Amino acid sequence: MDWITEHKLPFGEAMEDFVDLLVDHGGAVFDAISETLDTLIHGLTEGLLWIHPVALILAFTAAAWLWHRRWGMPVFTIVAFGLIWNLGYWEDTMATLSLVLYATVICIAVGVPLGIFTAHRNWMYRFLQPVLDLMQTIPPFVYLIPTLTLFGLGVVPGVISTVIFAIAAPIRLTYLGISEVPKELLEAGRSFGCTHRQLLFKVELPAAMSSIAAGITQCIMLSLSMVVIAALVGADGLGVPVVRALNTVDIAKGFEAGLAIVLLAIWLDRFFKQRDKTAG
User: Fold this and answer.
1) What is the spatial distance between Cα 64 and Cα 100, in angstroms, rounded to a whole number?
2) How far is Cα of residue 247 from the mean position of the Cα atoms in its chain?
3) Using N-to-C axis directions, what is the helix angle for 72-87 and 53-68, rounded to 10°?
4) Which of 157, 182, 263, 266 is deepest in the core (most CB within 10 A)?
5) Angle at CA of residue 176, ends 126 and 229, nearest 5°
6) Cβ-based neighbours of 2, under 8 Å, separated by 6 or more
């Protein structure tokens, strides 16, 4: 039966040739993308680090109160970020926060419009669905290799890989939310003479907002799950001490860095959840 493996289909070689083609003919484009993203991410990180931790914690606390109008979230903000600062992971946390925010912004900017588009054209979603399944089921290390080849070492391949891994959530949940808008609402909007644009912004998006918001929070959680993997290709953040702890079997450092990731994940999840309209 060796003849079967001796005549294997050249899937791997085809992908390698495709990546080589991109490098040969689009190197300048990928370099520009890499430099731009690197500048933006490091600029945000440096801006956050320029602010004193006490002032930033107070700003996060005020934002949590203004958005949620409940005391639980501001109190948790002070405790979580205070503990992160005390453990000595403030700089790594700000780097991780920058990476996650930029990855989430890219996912929203691409995923939400694409989800709306596919909800209005089911044939497009049927075409896109296996691609989304592939993006979420292939181990992240696999597509970390071509992104590393295209963008080089640093935070950028980590961000791109994070986007590939996380973007399926806002696409799927936006599609689901728009698709499940009651037909009665759509008919009522049309009967009042709404244009397609007005129908989208005044009927469909408000009705689907809870689903879209769930897609965004899920995207944030998926982005945070890539923090350690991104550290393997040179990205700064909380993944770095985790990798170092793994290499040196340092249980204390690994637990502390993991705790910082958990606290940041909980805070982001709670902060970006839809505001409870009964609050306040």
Assistant:
1) 18
2) 27
3) 160
4) 157
5) 80
6) none
pLDDT in tens, 13-50: 777 777 778 777 777 887 888 888 888 888 999 999 99
Residue 197 contacts by C-beta under 8 Å, 6 or more apart in sequence?
none
Is residue 86 within 8 A of residue 149, CB to CB? The reply is no
**Per-position b or e across 137-148, b if 16+ CB within 10 A of its CB:** eeebeebbebbb
| Amino acid letter for position 142 | V
What tokens were used for 230?
């991104």
Residues 117 and 170: beta-carbon distance below 8 Å: no
* CA atoms in the 13 A half-sphere facing the CB of 123: 0
Q: Measured between alpha carbons, how far is 170 from 112 in angstroms, rounded to an integer?
A: 6
| Tokens coding 211 | 């689903």
Q: How many CB atoms lie within 10 A of CB 235?
A: 26
Q: How far apart are CA 91 and CA 76, in angstroms?
A: 20
The residue type at 98: S
Tell me how far apart the alpha carbons of residues 274 and 217 are, in angstroms, rounded to a whole number.
9
161, 140 contact by CB (below 8 A): yes
Contact call for residues 275 and 65 (beta carbons, < 8 A): no
Element (H, E) at 52: none
DSSP state for residue 226 in the 8-state scheme = T
Alpha helices in 69-199 (DSSP H): 72-87, 90-120, 122-137, 140-151, 155-166, 168-179, 183-191, 196-199
Question: What is the tens place of the pLDDT at every residue in 197-253?
Answer: 888 888 888 888 888 888 888 888 888 888 888 888 878 888 888 888 888 888 888
Secondary structure tally for the chain: helices H, strands E: 15, 0
Q: Are 66 and 215 in contact (CB under 8 A)?
A: no
